[in-house]
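testing teh design pipeline on a random one, pls ignore if ur not involved
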């Protein structure tokens, strides 16, 4: 599998793992570190758990990106939503348009492109996932 896809998977683990841990363990840091207000601590806690699950998917795919290539689509969807949902919240005024909220978006879109490229790479050997065996 392409080295760039592996690096992108590691970055995905770091992004979702970081945001997940903050959302679970130290919610008061969300506004300071990410410019994300905590309006509902319970919802933020649930989001943190889901982000850690997503980080786990990245880690799972990283172990064997060729075998688990179809899961790269989930990684792409995760980062796409990580751009689209904050952009919608910024547009409606619920999130501030700052370097912390807007700055990562182009980088996240690059990750989406790498995941999609890895998922559809022509000529790559396809192998069955555990779900298709």
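output:
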């Amino acid at each position: 599998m392409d080295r760039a896809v592996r690096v992108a998977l590691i970055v995905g683990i770091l992004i979702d793992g970081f945001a997940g841990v903050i959302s679970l363990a130290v919610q008061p840091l969300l506004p300071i570190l990410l410019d994300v207000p905590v309006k509902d601590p319970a919802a933020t806690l649930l989001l943190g758990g889901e982000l850690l699950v997503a980080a786990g998917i990245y880690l799972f795919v990283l172990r064997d990106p060729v075998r688990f290539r179809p899961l790269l689509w989930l990684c792409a969807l995760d980062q796409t939503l990580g751009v689209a949902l904050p952009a919608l919240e910024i547009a409606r005024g619920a999130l501030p348009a700052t370097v912390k909220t807007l700055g990562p978006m182009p980088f996240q879109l690059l990750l989406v492109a790498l995941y999609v490229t890895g998922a559809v790479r022509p000529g790559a050997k396809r192998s069955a996932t555990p779900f298709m065996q």
